[in-house]
Amino acid sequence: xxxxxxxxxxxxxxxxxxxxxxxxxxxxxxxxxxxxxxxxxxxxxxxxxxxxxxxxxxxxxxxxxxxxxxxxxxxxxxxxxxxxxxxxxxxxxxxxxxxxxxxxxxxxxxxxxxxxxxxxxxxxxxxxxxxxxxxxxxxxxxxxxxxxxxxxxxxxxxxxxxxxxxxxxxxxxxxxxxxxxxxxxxxxxxxxxxxxxxxxxxxxxxxxxxxxxxxxx
Length: 217
Fold this sequence. Notes:
This protein has helices at residues 2-8, 15-32, 61-69, 88-95, 104-119, 146-154, 166-169, 200-216, and strands spanning 35-41, 52-55, 74-79, 97-99, 123-126, 158-163, 180-186.
């Protein structure tokens, strides 16, 4: 699929077509690795709206499962270090918004790029934990502010997802994991209408609590 993906990442206006191919690629990776996604939905996302899509982060397969779950085009915001991964990193840096968390200028560029994507009708996806926790026993790490600041600034709803099995199936630990079902739950959207940056912590904590309670169940 390399030639097709290469062509579709050449221009931003072709991103919706790239997204369709990327979803197909994600399913090949998941099913080919012996993982069987099982998605439940509390509500259907409106295809005519942009969202801030968030989920817990425990595995490299979170990216593939997110692509499998969400039907409508979104762009990942992720750390620039992932661009170093062979092959995957090549397309990652051509199709995603990269952030250097040590650079104030990079964070400003992320905001500008996200604004342009949202204006074009594309949703944004961020894993608000900011990375995979080193403590493998931790159910859900604390959330960073970025996703919620952007959602409030653009007055777009939060679409939370909970991934229950990815850590068990394919963790960041060598010689561990197993084939099997990967459960994902798409939760009710959380409105940001009328919220200001003063409500950022409240919105962040509410989103985290909803995902955490789902994971505990």
